[in-house]
């Protein structure tokens, strides 16, 4: 059996029309190309210091994303979890409470925005082994899921920011975060 070799993929940027498309459902999870895409997305999100990445961000218009929360230079206070592939994901319930917090995006480098999101979401997805999963996600991980889920529908975080006054440069965001501690 050959060893899996994953590679870091190029992340497309805002303006690429693929980021504004609705992604296709994945029919065959066992497909070798889908499994390789999952491995490559995990490598890509780790190498980019991200906490999540959706297939459309690497120009693959498929309903697949990785949630990979962990502390890193972009998100030093992120909770640690194993990178998880979520295929054909859905939000099936959510909190009545919406919270604004800062988000960035690997496809929109250099900008952060205050984005309103549900505090918790109950989600359903298929894992990479083809098993249907149900999970309740809260706080930061719920935010990652909602952000990545938006990518599958051609939505970026800038579309959710309520005012341009709630946008800052990455540099200013880091300065603000460092002044909090």
List keywords for this structure.
globular; 8 strands; 5-stranded antiparallel β-sheet; 23% helix; alpha+beta; 30% strand
In a few lines, what is going on in this structure?
This protein is an alpha+beta fold and 181 residues long.
- What is the CA-atom radius of gyration, in angstroms? 16 Å
Main sheet summary: 5 strands, antiparallel
- Roughly how much helix do the residues carry, as a percent range? 10-25%
Outline: globular
Q: Given the structure, what is the number of helices?
A: 3
Total of domains = 1
> How is the CATH topology named?
Peptide Deformylase
CATH homologous superfamily (4th level) name: Peptide deformylase
Q: How many strand elements?
A: 8
Class derived from helix and strand content: alpha+beta
Percentage of residues in strands: 25-35%
CATH architecture: Alpha-Beta Complex
N- to C-terminal separation? 50 Å
Explain what the structure shows.
This protein is of the alpha+beta class. It has one domain: Alpha-Beta Complex (Peptide Deformylase). Helices cover 23% and strands 30% of the residues. It has three helices and eight strands. The protein has helices at 32-47, 139-152, 170-180, and strands at 52-54, 64-67, 84-94, 98-105, 108-118, 120-126, 132-138, 167-169. The chain has a five-stranded antiparallel β-sheet. Strands 4-5-8 form a three-stranded antiparallel β-sheet. A hairpin with a 2-residue loop joins strand 4 (98-105) and strand 5. The model has no long low-confidence stretch (mean pLDDT 94).
